[in-house]
Amino acid sequence: xxxxxxxxxxxxxxxxxxxxxxxxxxxxxxxxxxxxxxxxxxxxxxxxxxxxxxxxxxxxxxxxxxxxxxxxxxxxxxxxxxxxxxxxxxxxxxxxxxxxxxxxxxxxxxxxxxxxxxxxxxxxxxxxxxxxxxxxxxxxxxxxxxxxxxxxxxxxxxxxxxxxxxxxxxxxxxxxxx
Length: 178
Description:
The structure is a single chain. By secondary structure, this protein is α+β, with helices and mostly antiparallel strands. The chain folds into two domains: about 1-30; about 40-170, Protein Transport Mog1p, Chain A (3-Layer(aba) Sandwich). It is about 25% helix and about 40% strand. The protein has three helices and nine strands. The strands form two sheets. The chain has a seven-stranded antiparallel sheet with strand order 2-3-4-8-7-6-5, sandwiched between helices. It has a two-stranded antiparallel sheet with strand order 1-9. The protein is elongated, with a radius of gyration of 23 Å.
């Protein structure tokens, strides 16, 4: 019981010291509008009106669901849970195991050269045979893929130009500290 009390006391003292230092340095007296955050995020690039964003979830990468005007859904996944480029490539290839690799080649796009793999999967509970188009850029710890109910829909989505693009989003004013 004394150990818990000591830990709480140390935590409170550390918090108080941090608060005191922040106030003495006048970090807490600045208005909020002076704070310009620097964040690493995903920027969505729209080029085709045939797909609209339905849902976005981001944690160790992002999962975005799009819908066509007739209700068909396509999922775009950016997976960034691997610790190294080699591990990311192995993680991507483990996703091929449940399907049949139909096409594997090197592909050049606006981000550079990438390994592009098309994989067909068995029919799911909806009666569709999902298709995934994987992209891996050498040296990256992330990989991405498009998942759709058919090859035609996956290719339409790929051609539409909708994609996640990782960038450091930083305003010019945040680069200069007052």
